[in-house]
User: Fold these one by one.
Assistant:
Number 1:
Amino acid sequence: MQKSIERIAGDSEGVSYEFPVFRFEGLRFDGSDKSASSAYLQAALHAGELPGVVAIDALMPMLEKAEAEGRIKGDITVVPQANPIGRAQYHFGEHQGRFHLGTRTNFNRGFPLLAAPDVKLLPDTTLGTADQRLKTRLLQLSLGHDIVLDLHCDDEGLAYLYVHASLWPAMADCAAAMGVDAVILWDEDTDGTFEGASITPYLNVPAVVARFDRRVATTVEYRGILDVDGVLAGADAEGLYRLLVARGVILDQALSTSGSFTGPNSFTGPNSFTGPNSFTGIVAPLENIDMMPAPRAGAVLYDVKPGDRVAKGALLATIVHAPGEADGRTQVLAPQAGIILTRRSRRIIRAGEDLLKLVGDRKSADARSGTLED
Ligand SMILES: [Zn+2]
C-alpha cells in the first residue's frame, strides 16, 4: 500500500489544502489478472458526513491483510476524507461541510460531466476556485476505475444507494453484498454530482469501453449524520469488502465459496447479507420519491421514522407553528403509500423545507422528485 498526499491550491496566497490517497496495486506478476476490476472509494465529500469515513477506517486493515496475503487482484484507490476544504469550514462554531462557503456551491454538484472517460477532457481549473480544483482532481483520481463508490449519509435514514438505471439490475449483487436497505434508480443528472460525473462519461461510448456488466458507480447513503458508530462501521466495512470480493477485486476463497461472511463482527441486523445476487430490499425509481415540504414553519413532531411503511393518508408529522393556540398545529399526511426513507435530524423547519423522503409505490405527483438529493 502506498500513501501519497494530494495538494489543492486555495483561493488566496498562503492557503492550500491536502488529503491523503492510499493505493493498493493489484497483482499482475503472472499476467493472469490484468482484467481484474479496479476500485475507487471516497468518503466525506460532504465533509461532515462521517459514517463512510469510519467504515473506511475499519476496512483498511482488511485491505492490508489481503495485500499481505497476496489476494488483491485489481488496483484499489482509497480517499478516506475527500474534502479538506469543507472539513475546515466552521461558521459561528457550526461545521459547514455541504456547501463551499466561498462560492455557495454544493460540494457534490458542479463536477464536470465528460463526454468520454478521458482525463484530457477535464477542464483547466488553475484559474477557477479551490472547490473546482478539488472536484477536478477527485474526478481525475477516480476515472478509469471500474468500481467507484462515493460514501455519504443522510440526515436520519436507512442505508441506501443511488444507482444509474443503466447499471441495474447488474449491481444487485453489490447492493446485496453491502447489506443496504434500498436502492434508488435515477437516469439523468444535469447538476454534476460526483456519481453523475462517474457514470456520464460511459453513457455514450462503445459497449466494449463502457463495460456496464462490470461497472459500478454509486452514491452510498450510510444512514444518518449521527450514525457514526463502531459496530455499524465494522458492518459497513464488511459490506464494502464483500462487494470487492464479489466483483473480483480481492480474492477471498472463504467468502467466494460460502457466499456469506462469518467474521467476528458479522452484522446480523435486519439488512444483513443473505447471499450473492439476492438483494431483497426496496428498489424504486427516483420519481417515486415524495420529498414532503413543510406547509408551515415551526417545530416538527414526527409520527414516522425511517423504515416505517405507511398507507396513503397516514399521519407523517405535525408542525407546531403557533404553540399554545387553537389551530396552532398542522398535520402532514402521506400523499401515497410507501416506505419512509429519511427524515430530518433537526426539528426546526421553515415553510417549504423538506420534512422527509417517502419512497412511494407509485410516481410522485411532485415534480421535484426527479432530482438527485444526496
Ligand atoms: Zn452527502
Number 2:
Amino acid sequence: MQFDFDVTVVGAGPYGLSAGSHLEASGLRVRVFGDSMSFWAKTMPKGMLLRSPRAASTISDPNGDMTLEAYEAATKTPAAAPVPLSTFVSYGKWFEQKLGENVDRRSVASVASSNSHFDLTLADGARLTSRAVVIAAGIGPFFKKPSELASLAPDLASHCYEGRPIAEFAGKRVVVIGAGQSALESAALLSEAGSDVEVLARRAKLRWIGQHGWLHHLGPLSSLLYARHDVGPMGISRLVAYPQLLAKFPRRIRERIRRRAIRAAGSAWLPARLRRVTLTTGRTVTAAEAVGREVRLRLDDGSERRVDHVLLGTGYRIDVAQYSFLSRGLSSRVRLVDGWPVLSGGLRSSVPGLHFVGAPAAGSFGPLLHFVAGTEFASRALTASLVRTRIHG
Ligand SMILES: Cc1cc2nc3c(=O)[nH]c(=O)nc-3n(C[C@H](O)[C@H](O)[C@H](O)COP(=O)(O)OP(=O)(O)OC[C@H]3O[C@@H](n4cnc5c(N)ncnc54)[C@H](O)[C@@H]3O)c2cc1C
C-alpha cells in the first residue's frame, strides 16, 4: 500500500525540525507539521536568555551545516553568550527555511492508527496517511498549577508557559511562585519592566547553576567532569551525555539521575538581576482568593499578600495522554509509566511506527532529551530505526 509519507512529524520545534532534516537526508519522504518555534516565540518571555551554553544550543542536522554558528555567520548576527531568545527563534526559523516544503505550518488535529499505518487530520480538515509518526509536540499541555491557585481567573494567576507578556505587569504587584529558571528569570524581567516583585519558593534556599565556574576551566580535566552539553552537575553531566547507556539503567535510578540533573535552579547570571526582587524562601501558599481585582494569598507562616497577579513557575509533569491530538484508541495502546511513554531503541513506543522525541523521551533516555542538545542523539537514533524499518518492512 502506498502512503502519502513515510514519516510525519507532529511539531516544528527544535526536535521536530531536527528530525525532519535527518529523515529527509536519509531518503525518507517526510513532512513536519506545525508553526515552527512557536513555543519559544509565543510563550517564552521577551528578553529571555537561554540557560544552555552556546555549545548546547545547536539544532542537529545530519552534516553539521546548520549550527547556531552557521546561522550567525550567514545572517551576520553577533555571537552572544548567553544566547538571546530572539536569536534562537530566528535561528529555528532559518533552519525551517532550509527544510523547504518538508515543513507545513498547519497543525495536526488528530492522529489515529490503522493496522499498517497512521491516519492524520490537519486543523483545516485535510487528511493524509503516513507509515510512521514522530511526536515532537513539546511540553505545552503539561504545565502544573498548584491546586490552591488553580481556580483563580487567568487575569489573576497564570503559568509562565501561558505566555502573558511581561510588559503587561509594569507598575503592578506580582508574586512569582517557584525556584527554577522560568520563575527566577521571569522575576528578573518583571522587575526590570517596572513591576514590584516577590518570589515565593518552597525551598529553604535558592540554588544557582554554575557556581563552580572554575571547574569548567581546567582544560582536559574539565572535559572529564562535564560533557559539552553541560546538563547536570559534575560527573552526572558525563553520564547524561550517553542516553543509550542511561536507557539500560533501572528506571528508579534513571529517574533519580534525571531529577538531579534538572532540579530547580537559576542561572549564575540571575542573582545580580534580582537585586530589587524580594526573595522569600521556605514558604508555601496555603490559600488564594480573588478580592475584587486583587489576589489575596495566605502563606504557611500565617502572613498574607495582596497582589495584582500571581505568576506560576511551577514546572510541568509529563503525561502524553494529555496530547489531545492522539486519538483515544491510539493513546490507549501507548504503554506508559507515570505518564511517560516507555520507549525502546530508535525512541519507539509500544505502538509500532509511533515514536516520541524531546521531553517525553527523557523518561527512557535521560535528561539530555529535555534540552536542545538532545536533538543529535534523538534524530540519529530515530532515523536509523525508521530507515531499518523501511528496508525490512
Ligand atoms: C522557560 C524555559 C526556558 C528554557 N530554556 C532552555 C534552554 O536554554 N536550552 C534548552 O536546550 N532548552 C531550554 N528549555 C527547554 C525547551 O523547552 C526544550 O529544549 C525545547 O523546546 C524542546 O524542543 P521540542 O521541539 O521538543 O519542543 P517545543 O520547542 O515545545 O516544540 C514543540 C512544538 O510542537 C508544536 N505542537 C504541539 N502540538 C502540535 C500539533 N498537534 N500540531 C502541530 N504542532 C504541534 C508546539 O506548538 C511547539 O511549537 C527551556 C524551557 C522553558 C520552558
